[in-house]
Structures are given as C-alpha cells and as structure tokens.
UniProtKB/TrEMBL annotation:
This is BHLH domain-containing protein. It comes from the Eukaryota. Residues 8-58 form the BHLH domain. Its main location: nucleus. Transmembrane segments: none annotated. The lineage of its organism: Eukaryota, Viridiplantae, Streptophyta, Embryophyta, Tracheophyta. It is found in: Nucleus. Keywords: Nucleus, Transcription, Transcription regulation.
Length: 133
C-alpha cells in the first residue's frame, strides 16, 4: 500500500537533485572561466586538473605593485631574485597610459632546492617600500 506523502517526496527529491546539478554546472562553468589557459572543451576531471595546476602555480607567483612615489630600479629586483637562487628566464613589459607593467618569468637555479616565494616576496616588498633613489 503506497503512502500518500511518498509520491510528493519523490518529486521533491527530483527537483532538489535537478537544482543541485544545475548549481554544480554553473559552478564548473565559472571555474572554467577563471582558469586563464584552458582548452575550449574539456571533461570535468580535466577541468579540475587544470584548476589544481593553476592554483599551485598561483601560490608560487609573487606579485608586487608600486606607485609613482615608490622608486626602485629593475636591476635591484633582479638582484634579489638572483640572491634567492632564482634566474630570470624571460622579461617583458608593457606600457598602458602612464604605467609600466613588468613581467618576469623566474625559475629556481636548482629544481631540488626550489625558491622560497614567501622570502622573495618579503625581500621585494622591503625593497619597494624602503628604497629611495
């Protein structure tokens, strides 16, 4: 003998599951949009792998911003990197309005040793906020 409320519960479960799937699909779409380099069509496991790789690489990045009143020379930044066992493998810049954006690609001199990114960031922050030219 079927219970009167069981049919309604089954319909509710289907609706909840449909909403959950739509929510997850939306989250994965937003995640795919946030990953800078990704193939156009990837499976969900591949998307998650790309996201994991991107997060790991982001943890290794050091980003610094300086205003016009914070003067330092680019060679000083490179000196800090070299002292921290890093080598600059590529350097580029772009000018947007009155701003110059430098991008330095750096790798560890020895892959066994690596680079302590928190120490590099600390030293570069000291340089930028304490140097006067």
């Amino acid at each position: 003998m079927p219970r009167h409320g069981s049919n309604l519960t089954q319909v509710d479960r289907k609706a909840v599951e449909r909403e959950r799937r739509m929510y997850m699909k939306d989250l994965f779409s937003r995640l795919a949009f946030l990953i800078p380099t990704r193939p156009s069509k990837v499976s969900l496991p591949e998307l998650l792998d790309h996201a994991i790789t991107h997060v790991k690489q982001s943890k290794e990045r050091v980003c610094l911003t300086s205003g016009l009143n914070k003067k330092f020379m680019l060679y000083q930044v490179i000196d800090v990197l070299v002292e921290e066992a890093a080598q600059v493998v590529a350097l580029s810049y772009s000018i947007v309005g009155d701003k110059i954006f430098y991008t330095l690609s750096v790798q560890a001199v020895s892959s066994r040793i690596g680079i302590e990114t928190s120490r590099v960031q600390e030293r570069l922050t000291e340089l930028i906020f304490q140097t006067t030219c």
